[in-house]
Design goal:
The structure is a single chain. The chain has 280 residues and is mainly α. Among the domains are: 1-111, no CATH class; 117-191, no CATH class. The chain is 58% helix and 6% strand. It contains eleven helices and five strands.
Amino acid sequence: MSRYLEESLAQLKRFENAIPWMYLDTVGKVTVGAGLMLPTAQSATALPFQYNGRPADAQEIIVDFRRVSSMVKGKAAGFYRSPMSVLLTPAEIDTQLRAAVTHLDQDLRKAIPIWDALPASAKVALLDMAYNLGMTGLLQGYPKLLHAVVTGDWKTAAAECHRGGPAPTRNEWTRQQFLAYIAAPSITAEAELRRDARPPAILPIEPAAPSITTRPTTKVSAKGDQPKKSAVKASGKKLASSGMKTAAGKPAKKAVKSAPKKQASATGKKSQRKSPSRSN
């Protein structure tokens, strides 16, 4: 059984009390156990009543039903008990209550299309009202409440859930169940949201564009001559920037080649100057 159904059972036992004999409720209906209404004497005979420690027969149950139904309504439950009263065991009261709540849960799921998506506190409140009023009394007598529940207007639902029969404490408890979802969403609803949430799409990561640098790169090879060429190119760029109208790279090569020639001519002149001294 769901957690909200267990909570509903606990609250109904507290509000309705567990009366083992038949009595009249506030509107004059024959009732037994935790507010289980018995519309006819035949419906009472379907329950396993006990009398003096043994199973009661159908005639004993019918006699007691007629006795109670003929009494004045609006009294406390103890007013309707007599030595002739047939009784239900506590275990049977609990069994009947579970069966009634489970049946109401199914009826409410059919009547309210979004029943499974409602917060647990709202379900417990509606189950309490359906158990107290009957399905017909809830569906026909509280249209504004049901509309507010479907639209998620919990303040209006809290304002429209008041009943005339139950005690003020029970009405206030029901009202608080509708207001509870405004302050703190139920755990059930959060779990449903997490279950329905889709993981974010994972986008492919594009490779970063290579950075562009204005400085010439130097590649060092095994021969070791590449750094010299890059230096020559750099010097060519400097010559080109100084205003020489030559092809890129050529001025640098001429400058390199002219340097040995100048050095050779200089050494030649020195040798010519020294040679006469040797002949003498």
